[in-house]
């Protein structure tokens, strides 16, 4: 195995020491960092961005991938709304991020309180309640555009279908 010498400035020495503590082997830590850097930079040059989305219930957790946004849209109903974003990943798969939120409900003697602040003045009822469900976001990964048809509204599907054949970046010779 060939040896390579890396010169480290005095200012960066604490960073290298911390990396060695965390990795146990500084060589493997450097290789991992370089691999990630090359992957991200090649993706950026190809027109892909690093995408971070929230998934799960409430605050959930974050997931990250390299992709390009193809289209976004949503729909609402009396019980909530759904927001959709469809990406093409760097590996050519289609990634659907769906964020579903429930709207709040108010019940009580008089539901006119839903009509704005003016209806609240002088008309407070102690027999009221409200509720709101936490939203849930999901990430679905599919191989083909056709697999998205059942997962998103038809008008959004048409936009994705059209955008799917476009390159992430088109180099112009101008």
Throw out a few tags for this protein.
single chain; 174 residues; alpha+beta; two-stranded antiparallel ribbon; 3 helices; 24% helix; flat
Walkthrough of the structure:
The protein has 174 residues and is an alpha+beta fold. It has three helices and seven strands; from the N terminus they run ααβββββββα. The protein has helices spanning 13-23, 26-45, 154-163, and strands at 49-57, 61-77, 80-89, 94-102, 105-108, 128-131, 136-142. A five-stranded antiparallel barrel has the order 1-2-3-4-7. Strand 3 (80-89) and strand 4 form a beta hairpin. The longest helix is centred in the N-terminal third of the chain and has 20 residues, at 26-45. The two termini are 46 Å apart.
User: How many helical stretches?
Assistant: 3
Q: Largest sheet, if any?
A: 5 strands, antiparallel, barrel
Which spans have pLDDT < 50 for at least 5 consecutive residues?
none
Cα(first) to Cα(last) distance is 46 Å
- Fraction of residues in β-strands: 25-35%
**Mean pLDDT value:** 82
Query: What is the CA-atom radius of gyration, in angstroms?
Result: 25 Å
The side-by-side strand order for the widest beta sheet comes to 1-2-3-4-7
Q: Decide which structural class fits the backbone.
A: alpha+beta
Helical amount: 10-25%
> Based on CA inertia axes, which overall geometry fits?
flat
